[in-house]
Amino acid sequence: MPLRVKSRPVPSELPLPTPSPGKHFSRVGAELPDISVEDSFREIVKKLSIYIAECIQLPSTFEQLRTTTAGDDLRHLVEHLGHTCTHPAIVNALLALKWHYGAMTEDKGLNDARANSCEIVAWRFLTHLSEREAVDYCLYEIPDPAPSELRASGDEEEGEVDESSALLAQAWSGGSESVRHALSQTGSSKRNLLLQSISRLTMSMTADADGDEEDEEDDPTAPFTNLNALEIAAIADAKRFLSQNVVQKIITGIWNGDIIFWDNLSVHSVKKPRFYNPHTADPFSRLRVPKYLKSFEVLFFVVFLCLYYAVLAERHPHKVTPLEILLMLWFAAFSYDELSEWIDAGSIFYAADVWNIFDMAMIAIGFTYFILRVIGLETDNGYLVDLSFDILSLEALFMVPRVCSILSLSPYWGTLIPCLKEMGKDFIKFMVLVVVIYLGFLTTFTLVGRHTFTLGMMVMQLTKIFFGSSYVGFDMMRDIDPVFGPPLMIIFVTLSSILLMGSLTGMLSNSFSRVITHAREEYLYVYSVYVLEASTSNRLTHFYPPFNLLALVIFRPLRLFLPSDNKFRSARILLLKATHLPIVGVIEAYEWIRGSAAKGTQYNGFRGPRRAIGTPSLGGPSPKKMTGARPPIRARPSASSLPGDSLRPQAFREATNNVSRQQQAQSRALAEASELDALGEPLTDTEARIAEMSSKIDRLTELVIALQSAQSKTLGDVAMS
Length: 721
Prior knowledge:
The chain is mainly alpha-helical. It has 29 helices and 2 strands.
C-alpha cells in the first residue's frame, strides 16, 4: 500500500542558514578578470579586487581556501591567468592586494580570507610557469609613469638610500628633491601612505572611466612604483609566498650573485635584474652581492672586536692612544652606516631585525664612552675616565653576539631566533601581571614590617623569594609580623614559586610550540628581507665601512655648492674603485678557485624557457625588458589542426587526444605536488604515481611524434605523386 506524505510549506519568515566556509559559496555572476598587456598596474589591481571581493564573502582559513571547495573560484582564477595573462605585473598586483586586505582592521576575518586568497593565487600562478619565467615575474619592477632623467640614467648613487635601505624607502629614492622629502616618505608614514593608496583604489573600484581620468594625477598605486614582486611580498608579510621553492631559488640566486641588478659600474648604468655573465659584467659589480656584503660585515666586526679588546687591555688614563683613535674611527664608520640605514628604513622595518637593536645599543654605549672620555681628559677627572672605560666594557654584551650574527643565516639557528623573539614578547607581557602582584605584596609587607625592614631590604628579600629562594620567606615571616606575617608569606611563596612560575613555564612552552611550527617560514622571511635589502638598492655606488667615511668627508661638503653631474658621479666611482680594489681582488680569486666564474653566460640552475612577458602601458615610456628575454614562443598547432588531418587514421587522432588529456592531468597534478612541496608537507603515493605517469606519457609522446612524422612523409609522397 503506497504511503501518503503530506508536505508542509516552509515559512518564508525563517532565516536561511549560514553556509559553511568549507562549502562552495560565491556570488553568482562573478566574471573572471580580463587582463591584457596594455592594462596599467592600477587597472590590474582594480580588476583583481573586484573578482576577489565577489568570490570571497565568508571568513575562511588559509587551509580551507587551499584544500576545500571554498577555494574553487581561486583555482578557476589561477587557471584563467595561467592561460590568458602575460602581464608582467600580475604577481605584483596580487601581493599588493594581499597587503591591503591584511592591513585592514574592520571585518578582520573576511579580509584575512581575502588576503590569503591573493597569496594563494600568486604562488599557484608561479607553478604554471617555468623557473626562468618565474624570475621575470618576481623581479619585475613597476615602472614610474613619469620617470625623471636621473632615474632613466640610473644615477641614484647620490640618492638617500643605499644597500641597507628599506624596501619602501627605495620606491621614492629617485624622485626625492631633498633630504626632508625623503625622510617624510619613509618608515611608518610611507606604510600608512601605501594603505591609504590601495584603500582609495578598492573603494573606488566601481567608479566609471570618467572618474578614473579625473584621478589620474593622484594615482593611488603610485607608492608601489619601482618595487618588484618580492619586495612587495616582504612588505605584505607574504611569508608562505616567500617560502615557495621557486621563490627561494630566486632569492638564493640573488644571494650567491647568480642574479644581479647592476652589471656595470659606470655613469650610465641602468638597474635591472639579469643573470650574471662573468665575461661582460664589471668585476666591481660583485661588491653588491649579498653573500660578499655579509662576509665583509663579519670581517668588519671581527676587526672591531679586536680593537675593542686592545683598547680595554691598554686602558691609558691620561692620553688618547693611536689604538683608541682607530677604535673611534671604527665607531664613526659603523654609526654612520647604521644611522643612515635607520633614517632610510624607518623604525618599523629597522626594528624588524633583532640585530639592528644590538647595533643601536652599541652606538649608544660608544657615544656615551666618547663623551665621558673627552670630558674626563679635559677636566683631568680620574673618576670620569674610569667610568668611561667601565661603560665601554658594557659593549661586549652586544658586540660579541653581533659578531656571531652570521649564525642567523644558518637554518638551524635561524629557526631558533624567531622562537626566542616571540617567547621574549610573551615573557614581557606576563611580567606585567607579576609586577602588579609583586607591588601589592611589597606594599603590604613594607607597612606591616616597618619597624624591622626598610623598603630597600624588603625589595631585595621579596626578589630572592620570587627567584626561588623560598626558605628566605619562611625565615623572615615572623620577623615581619607574628600575626599577619606567616599567612601572607605562605600565600606569596605559593603564588611566586608554584602558580606564577608554573604558568610562566607552560606559557613559554606553548609559545615555543606555536612558533616552531612556522619557524621555517619566519627564517626564510628574515633571510629574504636581508637579501632583498642588500641587493635591490637604487644607489649605484656603495662604500663599505670604514671607506664610507671617505665619501662622507670628501663628497658631502661638495654637494652643498656643486651639482651632481656626470663628473661628480665619475669621481665617486673612481674613489670606489681605488678603495675597494683589494676587496674585489679577493672576490675574484675566491670565485676563480671555486670555479663559479666559469658557469657560462647565464645561470643554468633555472630550468625552462623564458617567454617574453607583455609590456604594460603605464602612462610613460616602456618598462625595462629583462636581459636575455627571448621572442614569444608560439604555441604549437594541435594534431587535429595539421594539414591532412582528415586523412589521418582514427587511431592516430585518438592517441593524440589521449596524450593531450594526459598532459593536462599531469600538469594539474604536478602543480598540486609543487604546492605541497612548497608547504613542506610529506609526499604521498600520488607523487610516485605522477612520476610513473610522466614516464609513460613521455614514451607515448615519442610514439605519437614518430607516427606523425611517418604520416607527414606519407602525405608528402601522395602530394608529389
